């Protein structure tokens, strides 16, 4: 184990065994050394970690609290050591990556740039499309791993979480709707809406949320359907329409006050961005890519 603070490991072993002798045997050190480490921890933390009665010891309330955090820290140390070891095995290779539209246009460009910069020996190809298309590419083994939105689950696919996202109602900052700032759910029927095309994960999530709220997607006033988030945002700048977009996709437009979020009373649309890959297709390079994305996204 990485030797960040050996005393923490000593404390953990004593806590689990309630014995200085057994902890010393486990760690291959002397019992006096164990006692010294515990005393130094108690002095540093200014608490008593164990009550001693002859050969019997009992962990204190403060010790129980320290044990909770010590367990988490030691687990993190182990994971770090394991991932560093796996990283050392990644000398290069080619990985085929996919992303559904929202992810491909918002989250993945930064991650792919960092991957290329930090690991130049790893080559990759990248394909984007709506969730249905990307999922089929994974099934066809044209893509090794992808990140998609939506809630459909294919039995051939392994799904694992990447990050949480929220869909919000957005309109041009100078529209009447933007000035209003908030509507109720029923008022959605009155708005001209820009929607994603069939097969898009975003559309699927919106439909489910609206059904839960008692609304029917087919009864909405659809102004136009567009395949690109960029196209939707551009359309909103020159119309009175509104659209449901990921908060990940409108950060700059909000910053420069080009678009505005309209709150909907009693309606919040949350979803997960997920990694997808074929069951059994879990090479070191694929595992590394997933860890890289999780650690470098903020």
Tell me what the structure shows.
This protein has 298 residues and is α/β, with parallel strands linked by helices. The protein folds into three domains: 84 residues, Winged helix-like DNA-binding domain superfamily/Winged helix DNA-binding domain (Arc Repressor Mutant, subunit A); 95 residues, D-Maltodextrin-Binding Protein, domain 2; 108 residues, D-Maltodextrin-Binding Protein, domain 2 (3-Layer(aba) Sandwich), CATH 3.40.190.290. Helix content is 45%, strand content 26%. Helix 1 packs across helix 2 and helix 1 crosses helix 4. The radius of gyration is 27 Å and the shape is elongated. The model has no long low-confidence stretch (mean pLDDT 86). Belongs to the LysR transcriptional regulatory family. Keywords: DNA-binding, Transcription, Transcription regulation. It holds the Pfam family LysR_substrate. This is LysR substrate-binding domain-containing protein.
Write the layout of secondary structure elements.
Elements lengths: L5 H12 L2 H8 L3 H15 L4 E4 L2 E4 L1 H29 L3 E8 H6 L1 H11 L3 E8 L1 H9 L5 E4 L8 E16 L3 H5 L1 E2 L8 E5 L4 H12 L8 E6 L2 H9 L4 E5 L4 H5 L3 E6 L4 E10 L5 H13 L2
Parallel strand pairs: 3-4, 3-5, 7-11, 8-9, 8-10
Antiparallel strand pairs: 1-2, 5-12, 6-10, 6-11, 6-12
